[in-house]
Design brief:
The complex is a heterodimer of chains A (324) and B (294). Chain A is 42% helix and 11% strand. By secondary structure, chain A is an alpha+beta fold. In chain A, a hairpin with a 2-residue loop joins β6 and β7. The chains are: A alpha+beta (324), B alpha/beta (294).
Chain lengths: 324, 294
């Protein structure tokens, strides 16, 4: 029995910078089965309908990471996204190049911004030159040591996370999810000797710009869960260096804040994070908000059972070193 | 129904209007809110960054309070919802559970894992149900186009937060339609509001908020609505900063979720604390067409 087919409309972003005055969307309609991958359809369009369509791809098996693009606004691998569900949900398949990287042509982007951030985290083992690895002998790691960075080597550098990240979009200084997840992998590698240096270097205009929105974790086709690795990196950065950055001061300040009443004291937090000088800079905005919401100046009510919270802090903060 | 009310810090402080609107809506829908003066802050994601296990233990204590009373929990903040859920997920790891128990058991506290933590959006759409809600609407918001803004932690990570697609959710739009408003679809509805870095780098935070507001506006929204008071701060209280970053006047009214529901159920703007917003909501309210005479 021949599989059932659907008539799938594709609206594909077409643009040649320098040649076209503006991007346009070109419609192609294809008879496909619902489980046909988007990439297969694109190759069919290029082979049978329009040879001028540009796209990047290689393995067709979710291994090489080349065919990431926006499929109905989601950053995805074209080779593993089936057409049926997309048409069912959206009535069509809109294909656009990845975000946060300049378009070279049609669905092909210039990946240099992505790779530049990758290089920034120096993604290679830094060994102690005085203790070279024994030649011809493998170094061993315990299962527990490997478990700490088990997910990160799965990354295929497809840049779907980079494309989905709102911090990258708004701030070119942010390294992006993939670079930070990769950094985490070297920070916890027991063979690496540059841990402290790595954690110090990544903090200014870097690590603390992560919004923990988890859009990267949603976009990642390999379940690397970059947002969770960035969270781990933040705790390690605080352990290595304390509150040297606004971001780390804010996290530490928040943790300390709850010791008073068990509820957030907003003014006290602003002071812990920004200092008195920083508070002065926010006076204008503060007054604007205070006129409508006078509670920002109020001390929170102390919760009942505060002694329990105090004892939880005493037992778990700071976390015992040997358990990390 | 009877449920443990976990208002979170912001709704008890600068976001008091969210607490007012929640109480009004629950009273009118027969949801009994049981209050616990011993609930603490959820850590808002920041305690998690500084000390993961401490954060889990703080929330295990909150969960245990509801569990002892035999109640599920109601949250009205995406971040509270996220942190309480995350604590439940991470405690499934026996090593984590052992460390948390090590701190809690000497206090006579143990969380066994029986509490369901539900955001108001889920209680309204799943427990009350849209047909029952529709039947209670006295002043349908016909003519008002509203862009739902979900807030990250209600949706993601999807495998941990559960309940609906994180990339293509529709429960909030369904709720808006049930109270007569016209939901506006736009990419920014599942994006971040920028709030978590408001103190780290205000210009970037406000640029992110500005993009989402601009996106809603360019898709025709008269107003936005959010289930998270932190998103509300970013989108409403700091909207003037967002305007500076995107170099466009926005003038976008932003409602808390229960305010939209309350309006449709017949609450007055005073009862919902609308005058506490930084961006006036009158323009959006004026879009509501008077109901046709039956």
């Amino acid at each position: 029995m021949a599989p059932e087919t659907i008539s799938a409309p594709f609206d594909i972003y077409r643009f040649s910078p320098g040649k076209d005055s503006a991007p346009r969307y070109q419609r192609y309609v294809l008879e496909v089965t619902p489980h046909t991958p988007v990439l297969t359809a694109l190759l069919k369009i290029r082979a049978e309908v329009d040879p001028s369509l540009s796209l990047r791809y290689s393995c067709r098996s979710s291994i090489c990471g080349s065919c990431a693009m926006q499929i109905n606004s989601k950053s995805r691998l074209a080779c593993e996204t089936h057409i049926g569900p997309e048409v069912a949900k959206h009535g069509r398949v809109v294909l656009e190049p990845m975000r946060n990287q300049p378009v070279l042509r049609d669905l092909v982007v210039d990946q240099r911004p992505f790779w530049k951030e990758y290089e920034r985290v120096e993604p290679h083992l830094k060994l102690d030159p005085r203790r070279p690895m024994p030649e011809g002998k493998p170094t061993s790691m315990s299962p527990a040591q490997v478990e700490r960075f088990y997910e990160t080597p799965r990354c295929i550098a497809c840049a779907a996370c980079f494309s989905a990240c709102p911090a990258v979009e708004a701030d070119p200084g942010f390294p992006g999810p993939m670079a930070l997840a990769k950094l985490y992998r070297f920070v916890v590698d027991p063979r690496d000797t540059a841990t402290q240096d790595r954690l110090v270097k990544i903090q200014p205009n870097g690590l603390w710009l992560c919004l923990r929105c988890h859009l990267c974790t949603e976009a990642c086709p390999k379940d690397v869960r970059p947002s969770e690795r960035i969270r781990d990196l933040k705790q390690l950065a605080i352990e290595a260096q304390g509150g040297t950055e606004t971001g780390s001061r804010h996290a530490i300040g928040f943790k300390e804040n709850l010791k008073g009443a068990g509820q957030l004291n907003e003014m006290k937090l602003v002071r812990a994070t920004s200092g008195l000088g920083g508070m002065l800079g926010q006076v204008g905005q503060g007054i604007r908000v205070w006129r409508k919401k006078p509670e920002i100046m109020k001390r929170p009510r102390r919760i009942e059972g505060m002694d329990e919270l105090d004892r939880i802090y005493a037992a778990l903060d700071p976390p015992p070193k040997e358990e990390r | 129904m009877k449920i443990a009310y976990y208002p979170g810090c912001v709704a008890q402080e600068s976001g008091k209007e969210l607490d007012m609107a929640t109480r009004w809506v629950c009273r009118n829908l027969g949801i009994e809110l049981v209050e616990f003066p011993n609930f603490s802050c959820c850590g808002s994601g920041f305690v998690d960054e500084a000390n993961e296990v401490l954060n889990i233990a703080i929330n295990a204590r909150n969960l245990a309070i509801a569990e002892r009373a035999g109640l599920d929990m109601l949250t009205i903040c995406s971040t509270c919802q996220g942190m309480l859920t995350l604590a439940q997920v991470r405690m499934k790891d026996p090593k984590v559970k052992a460390r948390v128990d090590g701190a809690l058991k000497p206090l006579g506290i143990e969380y066994r894992g029986s509490v369901r933590v539900k955001h108001l959006l889920r209680v309204l759409t799943e427990d009350i149900g849209l047909p029952a809600l529709r039947a209670k609407v006295r002043r349908p918001l016909n003519g008002m186009k509203v862009g739902a803004f979900y807030g990250c932690h209600l949706l993601r990570p999807a495998d941990e937060m559960g309940s609906e697609s994180a990339e293509e959710p529709h429960s909030f739009e369904d709720l808006l339609a049930a109270v007569g408003a016209t939901p506006v679809e736009y990419r920014g509805r599942v994006m971040c509001c920028g709030f978590p870095i408001q103190f780290v780098k205000p210009s970037t935070a406000s640029a992110i908020a500005g993009r989402q507001i601009l996106d809603a506006k360019s898709h025709g929204a008269d107003a936005m609505a959010t289930p998270c008071p932190l998103c509300h701060l970013s989108l409403d209280a700091y909207q003037n900063k967002a305007e500076q970053e995107v170099r466009t006047p926005l003038g976008m009214p932003v409602f808390h979720l229960p305010q939209v529901v309350g309006l449709a159920l017949g609450a007055s703007p005073e009862e919902l604390g609308l005058s506490r917003h930084l961006v006036p909501t009158d323009g959006a309210l004026a879009k509501v067409r008077p109901a046709a005479r039956a």
